[in-house]
Amino acid sequence: MLDDFIWRALLGGLGVALAAGPLGAFVVWRRMAYFGDTLAHSGLLGVAVGVLAGVDEGLGVLAVCLATALLLVLLERSRRLATDTLLGILAHSALSLGLVGLALLETVRVDLSSYLFGDILAVGMRDLAWIWGGGLAALALLAAIWRPLLAATVHEELARVEGVPVFAVRLAFMLLIALVVAVAMKVVGVLLITSLLIIPAATARHFARSPERMAVLGSGFGALAVGGGLAASLHLDTPAGPSIVVCAALLFALAFAVPTRAR
């Protein structure tokens, strides 16, 4: 019989996988993997901000991720630098600021490894409420903008001609990614968050014939990765967060082994 902390870890991981699958599909379609990395790196700065402000660290991470997404949108509109350059500057600046900020907190001891690689086995009931509440809110908002976001993803100029508020939809999507990054940080950590967004969605792409099917399959493969990674972590005594990502990568590799006709 499994201990309570294993069930909490499994429920937390499934909550993240459920939200990451559909969002990850759009991340893959829109080639925004580096954007997810940038938000994930800014999460460590959010931890430092939360500790300094004396608020819940999850709220600090969410606030900084949202601010980073807004800042990126504003900088993109100025068109002074290429997007990949902006992402690189923001990602490494935020990560370094977070590390420096935490180092200056001499009276507070922070376990950096749990933030960098996740600590899913330490998920509590409060964390579960945060993960499932944030994840379901992200899915509800994604459902509300699904059609215009899909139209803008397929052909942005045509969507704009048809009256789709492309800028507002893009901004909303970026904020949704920020929300999911803040939710997923406890499960897989800053350095591995983007992998849970991208790898299951990329695996689902081999089998999906419609955007909706890819979104559902993305959540399914993410759930399999969470279950398999936790099982491997328990039996092999390996870190849970990296084990989940390795399991997701194995599923992706197996997808390539399936004959094209079978897909």
Short description:
This protein is mainly α. It is built from twelve helices and no strands. It has a single domain (4-191), classed as ABC transporter involved in vitamin B12 uptake, BtuC (Orthogonal Bundle), CATH 1.10.3470.10.
Biggest β-sheet description: none
Q: Tell me the number of strands.
A: 0
The low-confidence parts are: none
Structural class by secondary-structure content: mainly alpha
- The figure for the number of domains is 1
| CATH fold field value | ABC transporter involved in vitamin B12 uptake, BtuC
Average pLDDT figure = 85
Classify the helix fraction into a percent range: over 70%
Query: What is the CATH homologous superfamily assignment?
Result: ABC transporter involved in vitamin B12 uptake, BtuC
Rounded radius of gyration (Å): 18 Å
In the CATH hierarchy, what is the class? Mainly Alpha
Give the number of helices.
12
**What's the N-to-C terminus distance?**
37 Å
CATH architecture name:
Orthogonal Bundle
Strand content: under 5%
- State the order of secondary-structure elements, H for helix, E for strand: HHHHHHHHHHHH
Shape: globular
Provide an overview of this structure.
With 263 residues, this protein is mainly α. The chain has one domain (4-191): Orthogonal Bundle (ABC transporter involved in vitamin B12 uptake, BtuC). Helices cover 81% and strands 0% of the residues. The longest helix has 26 residues, at 4-29. The mean pLDDT is 85. Belongs to the ABC-3 integral membrane protein family. It is found in: Cell inner membrane; Cell membrane. This is High-affinity zinc uptake system membrane protein ZnuB. It is a multi-pass membrane protein.
